[in-house]
Structure prediction request, 223 residues.
Amino acid sequence: NAGVTQTPKFQVLKTGQSMTLQCAQDMNHNSMYWYRQDPGMGLRLIYYSASEGTTDKGEVPNGYNVSRLNKREFSLRLESAAPSQTSVYFCASSESLTGNYGYTFGSGTRLTVV
Amino acid sequence: DAKTTQPTSMDCAEGRAANLPCNHSTISGNEYVYWYRQIHSQGPQYIIHGLKNNETNEMASLIITEDRKSSTLILPHATLRDTAVYYCIVRVRGGKLIFGQGTELSVKP
Prediction:
């Protein structure tokens, strides 16, 4: 029972490099989310996708882009990485945005930008 | 979504009940109270949620006051593996989860 799978688990980037964080879920969930967590802080919502084909900004979208490739996959792209984007990134999914459902989270991607 | 206030940290003896409080005095009638926890730096784990009635599942119990302005998460027999950061979140139906700072619970032998 995989749930939500994130790749890679760790990544070091140089300032200005680009990369894509991958997320896939196997629970047939409609809604997916990207959060970031900085040391000692709670999670902050970057982008979310209510359903396949739609994406919307969350609390802290600047510097990121997302793609809902299909129902299973939701990727997060950093076009030009900055040290301020050093963080742990979590992907999550839920059955729907409008229902009263809990979220299932992945195990995170630890990104360091030097 | 209404804001929540939680203590920054709490201790609990192993085998005893852990009672984690949460204030949400501005909660409105259609907002649910959710609890998640995060162990080390793993992804948050769903624990329980409720609207106005008390709720119980295999992990915990949730007690919501009659005026719904506060709630308590109860872990009936805390173990060392329950050491984690616990987040109380108020979420309108259909709204997104917005995390606060949470309570760092330390379960001690």
Q: What stands out?
A: The mean pLDDT of chain A is 92. Chain A is about 0% helix and 50% strand. Chain A touches chain B through 27 residues (CB under 8 Å).
